[in-house]
Amino acid sequence: MPLRIVLKRMSHKEVIKQLKSLKSLEVGGQPQESWVLRNKEIMMSQIQPPVQNNTDKYLLGEKIYYVKYLSQAFKQVFRPIVSVCAILLLFLGYTAMITVANASLPGDMLYPIKTTSEKVQLSLTFDDEKKVQLQMDFVSRRGDELQQLARNPDDTQAKKDKISQTAKKISQDVKNVQKDLNKIVTNSPTPTTLNVAKEVDDKTLKVEKDIVNVHASLSVDVKREVSKDIKEAISDTEDTGTSALSVIAKTVEANGDKSGVSGQEVVNRVNERIKNAEITIVAAAKEIDKMVTSTSTVISASGSSTTSIISTTTIQEMKEKPKQAQVVIDQAKDLLERKDINSAIEKIKESKEIVTDVIEKTPAIDTDPVKSDSDSSTTTQAQAATSSTEKK
Question: Measuring CA to CA, which of 148, 179, 301, 345 is 20 to 30 A from 190?
Fold first, then answer.
């Protein structure tokens, strides 16, 4: 029967009486006093340990907490900061190294870094027009390097090798520029192609002047070994520049004012090339005169004992070269006045070929003693007479 029903049936007095009887039940429900005391001590020892041990454990736990906190703080805050700082230092170090490397010259320790950086830039440039512009920037660098190498007063073999290698590099690079520019014009010209051609024209003209000036400043000993490479560098740079100029001229001829370049600008550009050609012709003429004067002095002291002889006829032919180049340039001027741009450009190229031939061959005049043709004939007759006497 449920307890509430039982309690309902019992009177108030009966309930009180029953409760008092429960209080006196020591064996059935009330614990013994000895048991209570014993278990009280056990429970209190578990709830509150000795004061000394509790303090040590608290301090140790506090230390562990702070260590864990600092570790988490480092992971979340300090580690990213340290990583960023490390990356920043590496970047700044790399940038500084590249900056220093860009000022280096062939033969310097950092020069390979400079050229490798250029190759990386080219490999990461996928637009053909931008690649041509970047290549021309590097060609301009080679021209500057060539001038700095030429300023070295010591005519060592190392200097000759560096100048020769730099000139070869210019030849190779301008050929690549010409090839890439022609590919753009043939396959996919854009409105900016004309600007690229103008930049190639401007920079090749500047580099060509640099090479000519360098050649003029070199000693005879250095010229003797680098003249062939210098000649090729001038010739290849000229070809690339006149090729770019032809692109400009043909574009203007085909599109007129729509091309964005006026006919007068094309004329001015051709005129710049003509002026540069005339300067080169004058320099070549002076070079020949200087060489002939110096070798005439040498031949006076050398007598007829030399085995390698350049005749006066050969010298005269070399002296005529600048005059021939000037005649061709005058023809280019006439063609330009008649607005025959492309023919004028071809004449400029022809003139440059004559001058570069002088640049290559002139050092040989200084290398080999010069004898007149009459002296050479006399020497031959004397040798024949000697031979006849010996036979007798």
Answer: 345
